Amino acid sequence: MAKRIITDKLQVFIITWLGQLISLIGSGLTGFALGLWVYQQTGSVTQFALVSLFTTSPGIILSPITGALVDRWERRATMLLCNTVAGLTTLVLVLLLFMNQLQVWQIYTGMSVISVCTAFQFPAYTATITLLVPKKHLGRASGMTNIGEASARLFAPALAGVMVLTIGVLGVLLIDFASYLFAVVTLLIVQFPKPKKTTASNQGKSSLLKEAVYGWTYIIKHPGLLGLLLFFAGSNFGLGIASVLITPMLLAFTSPAILGNVMSIAGSGMLVGSIIMSVWGGPKPRVYGVFGFGLLQAVCLLLVGLHPSIPLITAAAFGVFFCVPFMDGCNQTIWQTKVPPDVQGRVFAVRLMIAWSSFPLAYLLAGPLADYVFEPLLASGGLLASSVGTIIGVGTGRGIGLLFIVLGILNFWVAIFSYLYQPLRMIEKENIAAIYQLQE
């Protein structure tokens, strides 16, 4: 019997979403397991942070070119290629570990290849959602897509912690490889609609380099979009440092098993937020959702570092993750309604590059800031031990706690100053030069 190709837009979205959901959970298992492996092998926060650096940097650097190519290529084929290459890369890591040849630099290399795949897949996937989901439901669709990342954060740490003890890192990598296979199968049974051409597409169409630059040109012509990008770049800097340092901060006074439990409960905040966002669709105007939840997230980030208490850190981290779906969902909907579908690949790729550009810097600075600045300040007899230390504690991990407090304060002021920038505050009332019609 011939394979049935599914073309109904809603069915295509749900099937594609399910494939990406499973793949994200598998990747979450691998990311947690490999990060823990590197930290236990080296004992270095800096080398641990470099895993995150190599997971993001290559894709960010190449994203303008990948975005232009996504607009040229068939998006389903692009996603198929990305999942296949990422799966094969994971299989190589499996073989190296099986032969007891896996080294830290090989993990860096493998994560770099997967990062490039993500740079193609992210704009292809997000641009396709605009073609599959009616405009009025884009907020809900963004909530659903966040469920994938939330599930990875919820289930992956606890499952990975148990799996590393039972089936080992090798077994975790094999599960990740199987998740990529599942994603490939879901893409093979669906068909994506082609985007209609608009005047924006004709204006940006020329050489590959000019098409890559067009994404940036489009953004700077709309100050509200540029302001939105800069807000997330600033906010992501704090979150990037926090995501790296929460593991060594917790391991300073607790076990890997409790670490996994804390991260799972914290990740459930993102799942809860994603479900609410998918049902509710988010606040209106959307930009107020970005600001409001940005402020709440900053306060929660501060609370994570306030005291070495598992209940406090767990609750505060839950709050940090709970805010993510609302911020990302509102942000995503604004972009999907302000950028013509046929140029979303190149525009979204530049958007990814700018918004995520602060992550590599955060990953580079996280280790040195913790090891050489903040930890010595709150070590026994440290410069701040007799002042700040009397409030938040002294000893291993408390310097990282102080850094969390500083990051929370910085992110709070990023949200305040962003709100005061009128083009960003009024972005949803901004007249977009390239007029286009989304499906109603």
TrEMBL record:
Output the PANTHER family linked to this UniProt entry: MACROLIDE-EFFLUX PROTEIN, MAJOR FACILITATOR SUPERFAMILY (MFS) PROFILE DOMAIN-CONTAINING PROTEIN
Q: Where does this protein reside within or beyond the cell? A: Cell membrane
What's the protein called, per UniProt? MFS transporter
Source organism superkingdom: Bacteria
Assigned GO CC terms: plasma membrane
Q: Which Pfam family name is an example for this entry? A: MFS_1
Q: Keyword annotations for this protein?
A: Cell membrane, Membrane, Transmembrane, Transmembrane helix, Transport
Regions crossing the membrane: 12-39, 45-70, 77-99, 105-133, 154-171, 225-246, 258-280, 310-327, 348-366, 401-421
Q: Which SUPFAM superfamilies is this protein grouped with? A: MFS general substrate transporter
Q: Name one GO molecular function term.
A: transmembrane transporter activity
Q: How does it sit in the membrane?
A: Multi-pass membrane protein
| Classification via CDD domains | MFS_MefA_like
